[in-house]
C-alpha cells in the first residue's frame, strides 16, 4: 500500500520529482504544524494512500510539505491556505483543493487517479476550494460557483470568514505577504510582529476580493491591515501601536520566545 512521504528539503523534493514517471499522479499535501485542521487532513490522506497499491510504474505518489519551511515550493504552486492539496501529473497541475473537506479531497484524488495522463492534462487548472479549516499561509476561493440566494451567499461567506479569523491565534489580514508586503502599513505591521517574535498566520486579501470586501463588513472595520487575536479584532496599525504603547507585553502570550517554539508562522 502507498504511504505519505514527508519532504523536508528542496534537494529531497527535486530528487523525488526526477524519480517519477510522467504518468504518475503526484498528490502534494501542504500543511503547517500550528494549524489544527492539518492534523485531520494528514489522517485523511494516510487512510486514502493506504487504499492505493504500489505499482510499477508508479500510479500515485503521496508527499507532505511544510508550507512555511519550504516556502519556495509553496510559491511555485500558489499555495494559499493550509491544508492545501495539489494534484500534479507530468509537471502539470490538474486540480487544487483548499480546506479540510475529506469528501472533496477523496473525490479529487479518485477522479484523477482513474484518468490517463492525457485526459488528466486536459483538466489542467481546475480548482476546488473548501471552507473548513481554511487558514493562513493565505486562502483563495477561485472558481467556486455562487448560489443565486444573496442571503445564503452572505451567510456562507461570514461562516468562512469566521473560520479564517480563527485559523491561527494571531491572524494578520494584509495586502501582500510578509515577504512581499504591498503597502507600507502592512509592511510596518509585519515588522512589529517580527520584532515581538509573534507566531502568526496571514491572509493576502489581494488574492481574494470576496474576502477583501466581506471582511470589512464582518469586522465593521473598513481598512487593511487588520490584526485578529484569538478570533477577536484588535484593529489596524495605529491600534496595534497603541496597544503596545500601553502594554509592552501585549504580544507576550503569542511570542515564540515565550513558548520556546523555534519557527514563526511567517
Automatic annotation (TrEMBL):
<dbReference type="InterPro" id="IPR036249">
    <property type="entry name" value="Thioredoxin-like_sf"/>
</dbReference>
<dbReference type="GO" id="GO:0046872">
    <property type="term" value="F:metal ion binding"/>
</dbReference>
<dbReference type="GO" id="GO:0005829">
    <property type="term" value="C:cytosol"/>
</dbReference>
<dbReference type="GO" id="GO:0051537">
    <property type="term" value="F:2 iron, 2 sulfur cluster binding"/>
</dbReference>
<feature type="region of interest" description="Disordered">
    <location>
        <begin position="114"/>
        <end position="153"/>
    </location>
</feature>
<keyword id="KW-0408">Iron</keyword>
<protein>
    <submittedName>
        <fullName>Thioredoxin-like protein</fullName>
    </submittedName>
</protein>
<dbReference type="InterPro" id="IPR013766">
    <property type="entry name" value="Thioredoxin_domain"/>
</dbReference>
<keyword id="KW-0411">Iron-sulfur</keyword>
<keyword id="KW-0479">Metal-binding</keyword>
<dbReference type="InterPro" id="IPR002109">
    <property type="entry name" value="Glutaredoxin"/>
</dbReference>
<feature type="domain" description="Thioredoxin">
    <location>
        <begin position="1"/>
        <end position="114"/>
    </location>
</feature>
<comment type="function">
    <text>Monothiol glutaredoxin involved in the biogenesis of iron-sulfur clusters. Binds one iron-sulfur cluster per dimer. The iron-sulfur cluster is bound between subunits, and is complexed by a bound glutathione and a cysteine residue from each subunit.</text>
</comment>
<dbReference type="GO" id="GO:0015036">
    <property type="term" value="F:disulfide oxidoreductase activity"/>
</dbReference>
<feature type="compositionally biased region" description="Polar residues">
    <location>
        <begin position="114"/>
        <end position="132"/>
    </location>
</feature>
<dbReference type="InterPro" id="IPR033658">
    <property type="entry name" value="GRX_PICOT-like"/>
</dbReference>
<dbReference type="Pfam" id="PF00085">
    <property type="entry name" value="Thioredoxin"/>
</dbReference>
<dbReference type="Pfam" id="PF00462">
    <property type="entry name" value="Glutaredoxin"/>
</dbReference>
<dbReference type="GO" id="GO:0005634">
    <property type="term" value="C:nucleus"/>
</dbReference>
<comment type="similarity">
    <text>Belongs to the glutaredoxin family. Monothiol subfamily.</text>
</comment>
<dbReference type="InterPro" id="IPR004480">
    <property type="entry name" value="Monothiol_GRX-rel"/>
</dbReference>
<dbReference type="GO" id="GO:0006879">
    <property type="term" value="P:intracellular iron ion homeostasis"/>
</dbReference>
